[in-house]
Amino acid sequence: MTAADLAAPRSPQRPARRGVNLEKWGWLYMRVSGVLLVVLIFGHLFVNLMVPEGGVHAIDFAFVAGKFASPFWQWWDVLMLWLAFIHGANGMRTIVNDYVQGKTVRTALVGVIIVVAALMIVLGTLVVFTFDPCAGVFGAFENPDSVLYEVCQAAAAN
């Protein structure tokens, strides 16, 4: 190997690509979403573990139903869900791109990651926004012993 065979330092090996740099945007997303997730998760933990009297023992179906009755907490949890799944899927995509050699297998795995993350985001969002605490209290599963029975009965009367 001669000096002529070596590329000059800091010279481009190939022409610069034009267009959107998805790797750069993925890298930026990981940093921004990581910071937001820290705030959202610690806020979530504080409200669920420190605020209610009794700590973790106060968390039951009625507690969750009360939180999901508020649009603020619905959006808080949905934002946390979306950021976490996209953050995790992007991290898994990076790992697959780093360690999987075959292009076909890499493409298939990244496709599976995208489909699973999208499915979980859709299902999680549906659960948060369509949550009905009275669904199991009346109807075929009527349960007069439920903590929510009186509340749901009053809500049904209105």
From TrEMBL:
Transmembrane regions listed in the UniProt entry: 27-47, 73-96, 108-131
Keyword Nuclease: no
Protein name: Succinate dehydrogenase hydrophobic membrane anchor subunit
Cofactor: heme
Biological role stated in the UniProt entry: Membrane-anchoring subunit of succinate dehydrogenase (SDH).
Predominant location category: membrane
Subcellular location: Cell inner membrane
Pathway annotation: Carbohydrate metabolism; tricarboxylic acid cycle
SUPFAM superfamilies: Fumarate reductase respiratory complex transmembrane subunits
Species annotation: Microbacterium gilvum
Keywords (A to Z) from UniProt: Cell inner membrane, Cell membrane, Electron transport, Heme, Iron, Membrane, Metal-binding, Transmembrane, Transmembrane helix, Transport, Tricarboxylic acid cycle
